[in-house]
Amino acid sequence: MSGRRRRTEAEPRPTEQEQAVLRFLLEQRYATSRQLARAARARYGSDRSAARQTNRLLQKLGSIGLLHVLPRTVGGQARGSSAGIWTITNRGARLAGNGGADSEQRKKRYRRDQDPSLTFLEHTLAISELRVQLAELEDTRSLKIESITPEPACWRPYLGSAGQRIFLKPDLAVITSTLDGYEDHWFLEVDLATENPARIVTKCRQYQHYRGSGLEQRRTGLFPAVVWITPTTRRRDQLAHRITSETDLDDQLFTVISLDEFQPLLRTGASDYNTRKDHPHD
């Protein structure tokens, strides 16, 4: 066999703005045009400019095969074409820096001929929304985002009671720091009010078991606050009541909030936020 091969033409290097979009979709899988424009807002002079320039950039990346927009039938009219739901292609993933991943794993993750289920899509977009709100919060200089680790990199392996390997699977792992030098660690869980509360309790027990392993504390010196983010205050109250009613759960480990409380929680910190919530007139 000859040791010679034809040299292929190198892919053009993405611009900084293009690379930011590719990296976001590489890590979060799906996002709407609006979410991507909001995530890029700091680069532009106005919301309108961010939306216009981001839409132009998305159309360009789609036309050259780096991104794929879901058909308007996926996710319904409101979540489909009008929202412009985008995902990255295999080629886009290589340019975004995922070229070292296993090729079969990469194909499975970024295959565009199998549209996602509505449940999976809504959950993934909700996680992307947290990512966008984190970017917006950092843009206001209210705090600094030290790290954001998406799935599956944020999963934590540990041993179960029978010695079996188990994975704790947060939706996001985040580290933030405040202006006065405090660092907060977070495990974030998106709840869309579609799960039976009993399943949420089961996941809380898994967090408690993982904390009992001591693995996280040995790695970082502390255990992150576990935050459930719900779509409504009614669902928030339902889950909070269910968690506190379980006598085997340490309810101080868990914080349940609605989505509009997400940024205030990050600014305040879990322990201070819970104290203020429990004693609003202090």
Describe this structure in words.
The structure is a single chain. The chain is an alpha+beta fold. The protein folds into 2 domains: 16-120, Arc Repressor Mutant, subunit A, CATH 1.10.10.10; 141-278. The protein has 12 helices and 10 strands. It has helices at residues 16-28, 33-39, 47-63, 76-79, 90-98, 103-110, 118-139, 197-213, 215-220, 233-245, 262-268, 270-278, and strands at 30-32, 67-69, 85-88, 143-150, 156-159, 165-168, 172-178, 183-190, 225-230, 254-258. The strands form 3 sheets. Strands 4-7-8-9-10 form a 5-stranded mixed beta sheet. Strands 1-3-2 form a 3-stranded antiparallel beta sheet. Strand 9, helix 10 and strand 10 (254-258) form a beta-alpha-beta unit. Helix 2 crosses helix 3, helix 8 (197-213) crosses helix 10 and helix 11 packs across helix 12. Residues 1-8, 77-82 and 100-107 have low confidence and may be disordered. InterPro entries: Replic_Relax. It comes from Rathayibacter caricis DSM 15933. This is Replication-relaxation.
